[in-house]
Design brief:
Helix 1 packs antiparallel against helix 2. The chain is of the alpha+beta class and 108 residues long. The radius of gyration is 13 Å and the shape is globular.
Length: 108
């Protein structure tokens, strides 16, 4: 799977609550750096998404994905379950082989 396809699969896994797919896409030492917190480790991140996130039923419409070498960036919106925009974001993906090694999220 190329970087763009992996990034799209990541958002599909989040939006569909497919935590097995999410875990498969992430490297064991995955790290997610967000404006509000940082997650270290695939298991910790998947557990948060499955059991602890404050809003469930959110969606991530993606406007563009830019791929370059062993990375990618996705520009999109985070929507509530009601379809209201929570924030706009850019996620910068770094890969560890074919799996996502790190995502840095920038919001506005």
């Amino acid at each position: 799977m190329d970087a763009e396809a992996t990034a799209r699969a990541y958002y599909r896994a989040l939006d569909d609550g497919d935590y097995d797919l999410l875990a498969d896409l992430l490297a064991p030492d995955f790290r997610h750096v967000r404006p509000d917190r940082t997650f270290d480790g695939r298991e910790r991140f998947v557990r948060f998404m499955r059991e602890e996130r404050p809003q469930t039923g959110t969606s991530h419409p993606i406007e563009r994905i830019y791929g370059a070498g062993d990375g990618a960036a996705a520009e999109g919106r985070l929507l509530s379950a009601d379809g209201d925009e929570i924030t706009r974001f850019v996620d910068v993906f770094s890969f560890d082989g074919e799996r996502v090694g790190e995502i840095r999220t920038y919001t506005r």
